[in-house]
Amino acid sequence: MHGMTSIVKTVARIVVGVIFLYGVYIITHGHLTPGGGFAVGAVIAGAFILLVLAFGSDVLKLKVREAGSSTFESISILAFLLLAVGALFIGTHVFFQNYLPKGKVGELISAGVIPLYNIAVGVEVAAALVTIFLALVIYKEEVK
Amino acid sequence: METILAIIIGFMIIGALFALHAKDLLSALIACGIVGYGLVICFLLLKAPDLAIVQIVVETITLIIMVAVVLDSSRRELKEKASIRVKGISYVNTRYVVNIIAVILFTALLLFFFSESIDVLAPFGQHATRMSTAYIEHAADQTGSANLVTGVVFDFRGYDTMGEATILFTAVIGILTILRIKGKEK
Amino acid sequence: MESLIVLYIILPLGAAFLIPLIGRFVRFFAGMISALVFLGLTALSIVYISAYHSETIRYAVGGWQVTNGIPIAIYLVLDGFSGIILVMINLVAFFAVVYSFSYLQKYTAKNNFYALLCLMVAGMNGVVLTGDLFNLYVFMEIAAIASYALVAFGVEKEELEASFKYQVLGGMASLFILLGIALVYWTTSTLNMADASRILQTFAGYRIVIFIQLLFIAGFGMKSALVPFHAWLPDAHSSAPSPISSMLSGVLIKAIGIYVLIRLFFTVFSITYEIALTITVLGVLSMLIGGVLAIGQWDYKRLLAYSSISQVGYIFIGLGIGCW
Amino acid sequence: MTLYILCFALFLTGLYGVLTKRNIIKIVIGLSVMEFSIFLFLALIGYTNNGDAPILVNGKEQLLFVDPLPQAMVLTAIVIGLATNAMLLAIAIRIYRKYGTFDVRKINQLKG
Description:
- The complex is a heterotetramer.
- Chain B is about 70% helix and about 5% strand.
- Chain B is built from 7 helices and 2 strands.
- A two-stranded antiparallel ribbon of chain C has the order 1-2.
- Chain D is an all-alpha fold.
- Chain D has one domain (about 1-50, about 65-105): Helix Hairpins.
- Helix content of chain D is about 65%, strand content about 0%.
- Chain D has 3 helices and no strands.
- Chain D has helices at about 1-20, 25-45, 70-100.
- At the B-D interface, α1, α2, α3, α4 and α5 of B face α1, α2 and α3 of D.
């Protein structure tokens, strides 16, 4: 896959950092402001897709990245499940109970497990979208 | 408010019809984008900022993937013609005309049945909450989340969200399975 | 003992999430863990049937209590009927895994096969156990998407075509069902099945209820290969790997089609004469057409698929007559 | 009520596309239009006149909110729609490479 012109590359290099920063902002404030795990996942995946489209890459490198992102995905969704299962052993022993202290409404560290779920889902969605995109690109490159 | 929404939905219907009838697949995709982004504006008007954010990014990524699929194909669609030509004389293609009449009749029938059957339900803007009354009243003190949608998605109905993350995982495994180069070992 | 009910979801999902991570390094991990999970769940279902056959177990996920007389949590419900279906799902899945050990020799990407099978079983278990309409949709989609990918597992021409047909019809069916669920929410403002049935009683005989019921018949009829909507089953059945064929017509069309329809029509809606007649007529058609079309088949898998369609017809006749 | 009927008309437009079009990409577009109409439908159901977006803001007195439950349902359904679309497109690209066309009339190895 070929990259694009140096104008696109330069702009992409600057913009990607801003997009990541925006993603991190929404994910940490997911329980306070609009947005949350899904939006962030898609935003970060968009940044990755921008990088791949702008700079281009050979198939071998893309394959390494695909393996990495699918591993990330499995780990993060497993973390989500473990967070939910953890409720079976803590507190009142009910599946999906919010077992951490709730804190004060409107503060950054509040709402118990919700921010953790948010982060797990965010990473999962981002990794999933990146894997889907890379799988399509690799298939198109390998089978002509 | 209702008029603006009605106009936007009207545009979305026109966009959808254009997308389904465009000759070039790329312009069909762009027209499909009209429907998707019109939906974003509707979400904003309907006081659903979470949905607007998610829809706008998801729509963009879907468009990128769809364009990537379409871009190196021939992009042309084989059309069914309204008239056929046999030995220099042109006849009206009866199958085409019958199709159009059937579609119009069926649509009118379904729309009529739908509009007749929904007249007992709550009109637009006068929705009465039942299950979500508790979600609205107790979200702040029982989940600690200031964003009620996040509270519902991750706490009251976190089980649904786990299912949804699982669906994305399933789709990824499925796509990796479908797009592997060799299906069988020789 | 009641709280073990969540294992039906956790164990297959956990296995499916672990397989891509560990299966790469340990050779027989995928097959062994899925066989163990399904065997364990079969045993658990048998214990449930024998110990709790006359009572219903309810489990509120998240521990949310009933407030102002309205259930707000997602409930998992296990009664005698769902217990039997659970035994069936997990037992057939166990045998499918045991058979795949040798069947999969010629295929690549074995780990993905087992992961998808685990996800499909998790989806079906979730559908059978849930007492919540939207949750039903979510888990139905897990099972459906896993089965789309499994039908195309061989990635040859026929498999891809069958999977595409199945996806389009299945996707349409899912959207009909989602529209039906949205209409139920509009009518009742609740998603809990027991609560919704209480409110729908005040709407008995209205056209909106008939509309919702028709949407559900169309949607779940497509999922269970009832006759006007049966086109996908023979193709999918004959193209899929053999273990998946057995899962498809053995449990998938029953668990996410017929079981849900029975659950909805016997517990949530009150049935009018016309709807019961519609179901019965569709069942008779399905029985006849499935049987007649089976005569001309020379491929054994297609023959069996048409036989399944015919059997689905018998089940629907029973459902229709039982509703009167 | 007009809004709901328009929304159902959008649903029927998508259904018409799925049932009559013979091109894989057009079928995918039809399915996504049907999806969009249902998302809109759910969002319309949850709207309350003069209601606020369901977010608590410190120091502001809010009494009436839009129903958050349909919004949560749409949030879930959007991602499900993305997953189904991606699966369909993966199959579509593979079919295109095998047959050289998106036309379903030319893709008929299986009979019946």
